[in-house]
Amino acid sequence: MSGSAARSARQGFEFTDQDFSKLRELVYQHTGIRMADNRRDLIYGRLSRRLRALGLQSFGAYCRLIEDGQADELEAFTNAVTTNLTAFFREAHHFDYLADTLIPELLERNRESRRIRLWSAGCSTGEEPYTLAMILRESIPDIHNWDVRILATDLDSDVLVKASSGVYEQQNIQRVLGNRLKRWFKKGAGANKGKARVLPELQELIAFRKLNLMESWPMKGPFDVIFCRNVLIYFDKPTQKKLFDRFAGILVKNGHLFIGHSESPMDLTDRYTLIGQSIYQKNK
Questions:
Q1: Low-confidence stretches of the chain (pLDDT beneath 70)
Q2: Catalytic residue selected from 39, 50, 117, 154
Q3: What per-residue confidence (pLDDT) applies to 11?
Q4: Is 24 a residue of the active site?
């Protein structure tokens, strides 16, 4: 037994190099995510909980369960291995550009159709799409006369439940300042003290759906704007290229893609032009 396996055994389960290799293969197969060597402890910690919950004695038995395609456990597996890190108004320059530049452009460009579509891909617990909804409400005075919708998707069904609820701990809304906080959130009382709920005016703009980016996309689009930030860093380069091209395929002509600061399509595809800090415009 290797040193790593021996340490894992003392924690409760033997975790061999073969187990780790197989689980990495299964993660890639079902999510498209490449797990690096330094993710071994993360994989052990998250999936050992599944072994205990299922009463299994080994990671080998768990791998066989996933390979058998048991639907409920496949969902629990993907929920366990995905990472969710988000915040309201994260990378605030994106939302400044959306409010100050892009929405005025969309109002002019789409004045006949009066239709605007945004996609928050990898929406996690909902902070990003709710931030988008705030910007839209604040920037389009006659939004009730427009057909405006935000599609918010994630692979993890657990975070989508939280996102759909629109309820957040007070510490999670610290980036929502001043009048904006008062305008868009209702403070909880009694059993909900210390929490806040987004107002229905934001929720009604958003459709939360489960979606694996590596599988078929049921929505037809086209989208004016796609936010997919700090998601592609978990994929290898060939998968990133595939997704960048798929995003371009579902964006309108001259549509916009917002990504994380560590991500770039520039060496992978020629379908985008960089127009701002991690802001790209489709060019073909």
A1: 1-11
A2: 154
A3: 53
A4: no
